[in-house]
Amino acid sequence: MPTAAPEVAPEVAAGKPAGNLKQWIGAGLGLVVLCLAIWGIRMIAGQVTLAEIIADIHSTPGHLLVAAALSAAASYVVLIGYDWLATRHLGCRLPWSTLAAASFASFTMSHTLGVTVLTGGTVRYRIYTRAGVRPVDIAMIILLCGWTFWLGIVAVAGLGLVIAPDLATPFKDLAPSAERWAGAILLAGTASYLLLATVWRREFRLFSYRFFIPDGRETMWQIVIGAVDLAFAGGALYLLLPDAGAPGLLTFLTIYAVAMVTGALSHSPGGLGVFEGVILLLMPEAPKAGVLAALVMFRLIYTYIPFLLGVVVIAWQEWRALSQSRAGRIAPPPP
After folding, report:
1. How many domains does the chain have?
2. Domain that holds residue 141
């Protein structure tokens, strides 16, 4: 369990920048990925016209749009489990309304704007501090939510590469069995971490802050919740794809996982451009106009409409806090 707040690092206290070589390398690699994605999309865009994309959007059946919207909504409901697991692990018992507001608002911001720590992290800080959670525990909540996301990504990608290894169709001639080997490595890594979390209960210390990694049961919940979230989110896009050239669902979820990871590494807002480029690259047999139309509708359903709703939730939270603050100032003193 966490105890006291950690001390401030000397370089932070002195006002020196905390950047280092690792951060610069990460930013440089993200810029390279972004440039490659932009180049790839420009190449693909030359093969289709805007009129074709608009025509595919208009031809999408209404019931598929409704099904995709419901799948996206289910993903955001499952995302509450990220914050529930993190706060439960730290011993913070918060109302479901607080968890739902913090989860939905923070994820809609990070999905649209990127830079999760600054966007989603700021929203969580505003909501959780009002609920009495210490800033150091909020930082751990953000870390645990991110870890749940990565565990789900790795588990789904590993399972998909082993069971339905059709991810890298353009590259099969180079390494026919590479996908199954990669999937086996990912699953082995997930199983190894699960075993470690089950048997190794060592306390970690960061300055004066003490914590344990989630145990085996909590880790299993992290994997399940992360995988279910990925399935609902990827399923929303899968429903909108054209039938021609579309892979099986499990194969597509692996493609979706790779696209999500690549978009996150690019540091572009919401992985915009990079996510789309990876989806198009790994689905070479699908019609480009149909895939681009599906991606446009998916962005609208999964990213931009929830973003506007997230802004409303944040505004409501701020208005309620301001009203409570004013009521506290004008309330008569207790007897």
Report:
1. 1
2. 71-324
